[in-house]
Amino acid sequence: MKLEGIRVLDLSRFLPGPYISLMMADHGAEVIKVESFEGETTRKLGPKIKGHTAYFRNTQRGKMSLRLNLKSPDGLEIFLRLAEDADVVIDSFRPGVVDRLGIGYEAIKERNPRIVYCSLSAFGQHGTQAQRPSHDVGAQAITGILSLMQGEGREPCLPPAPAADIAMGSLGLVGILMALYRREQTGLGDFVDMSMTDCLLSWSPHIISDVLVEGRAPVLEDERLFGGAAFYNVYRTKDGRHLVLSGAEMNFVENLLTALERPDLIELCRRPWGAEQEPVKAFLKETFASRTLAEWDTFMADISVCYAPVLDLHEGWNQPFLRERGIISTGADGVERLGTPVKYAVEPGQPSDNLSELGGDTDELLERLGYDAAERQRLKDEGVC
Questions:
Q1: What is the domain extent for residue 244?
Q2: Which of 114, 168, 246, 259 could bond 306 through an S-S bridge, CB–CB 3.0 to 4.6 Å?
Q3: Dihedral (C-alpha) 35, 135, 234, 300: value to the nearest 10 degrees?
Q4: Which residues are catalytic?
């Protein structure tokens, strides 16, 4: 597989860091998850299937678990010795914590100049907000992204997906892989400073036009992505379900309005989003409310238009094409799981069936470092690992 021979020490918790190391593990990297005595938070977060939470299963598979007290001298030395032979370290502590523990980039670099060290944080390693704590929704709020998600009464509502977490996880993986690629030319690793707010804001080039050009926040009802476009909108059906039109290109507009015997409305869809498209929106609202979702599925089947039924998460999970793609697969224990989204024709990823118990690989890892049975027992007795 693509990352065979790469060793990762993962100190991170929750979603962004584990998402990075999961993708690396799926593609052949050896990932050692370094856990506190309390263990990864997601071991206890949410319902369990056959002994492990679904959250843990879908972020921590294929990783070894090392339980380690990093505040003890012996624990520090164990980590540093592991880092000497590692390629990547990932942490998600607040800026400065790893340096105080003695396991920051400079300390690791002294013992392994080839290390690629990725630090994940809400606001980055420097700047006036660096020490400010936050999780995903806080980053969405402070960047203005959350203001674009509005429910009844135009009140901001909680986002359905952790966009800031996944943005940082995805771009963190990119940053690590670029640093590993460059290391092949220079022989030297690098420090990768990933900020949740940086990453999320970098995903907004399609929605910042009004901010940059006119110096104001967008008026959502006039924006294509937020309800201003008739053909980029959500509509209610007769049976209380919903459907979406998700493409405002004129060929889709022409195809649907012709099929609905309203070609006279086509020209309005060439006009700016917002008030000028209201007649089209009103027609579509009334029309879609006249049939059930199943009836519209049948009607739309032979029309080339960007259309989809709005499904609940259970219905979405059970769409057959997701299994055809392999993004949903079944592990050896018979439990369905998320697959890997990166598909290669050569050396495809292979999600592991291994789900390590807390500290389950500690003994093996210490033995690799040369600790004999007596030393390993002493370290356990003294609460080091």
A1: 232-305
A2: 246
A3: -20
A4: 165
